[in-house]
Write a structure and sequence with these properties.
This is Succinate dehydrogenase cytochrome b556 subunit. The chain has 124 residues and is mainly alpha-helical. The protein has one domain: Up-down Bundle (3 helical TM bundles of succinate and fumarate reductases). The protein has 4 helices and no strands. It is elongated, with a radius of gyration of 18 Å. The N and C termini lie far apart (42 Å).
């Protein structure tokens, strides 16, 4: 039941937060270099930023990590539902195992993506 609830929540979260972030990004690109620089300073990185941008930078990264987790949670939950639609995996032990694997897989995949991004940011 929890996997199904999280599937709905992450789908809504991806649709709402993801679209808002995407639209902000598009508007920043359309508005010019200064607006785009402000967008990047808020969500990604600006070493010369003031206190406001440092706080929004942390919040921006939290949102990006959250969207990454929501993506993987929704993906793995959708794959689980796809398998269930074939009629497989309804046995209680198997269903419980797959439910746990959805959460574990989402957390591990999110960690792997952000560790890779951190590695590239430090060495790139």
């Amino acid at each position: 039941m929890a996997v199904s609830i999280f599937h709905r929540i992450t789908g809504d979260g991806l649709a709402i937060a993801g679209v808002l972030l995407f639209l902000w990004w598009l508007c920043a690109i359309a508005a010019g270099p200064e607006a785009y620089a402000a967008f990047v300073a808020c969500v990604w990185h600006d070493p010369d930023a003031g206190t406001f941008h440092q706080v929004t930078n942390i919040l921006g990264k939290i949102v990006l990590v959250g969207l990454t987790w929501a993506f993987f949670q929704h993906l793995f939950s959708g794959l689980r539902h796809l398998v269930l639609d074939t009629g497989a995996g309804y046995e209680l032990k198997i269903n419980r195992l797959w439910s746990i694997l959805v959460f574990v897989g989402a957390i591990l995949s999110t960690a792997a993506v952000w560790l890779y991004i951190a590695k590239e940011a430090l060495h790139g």
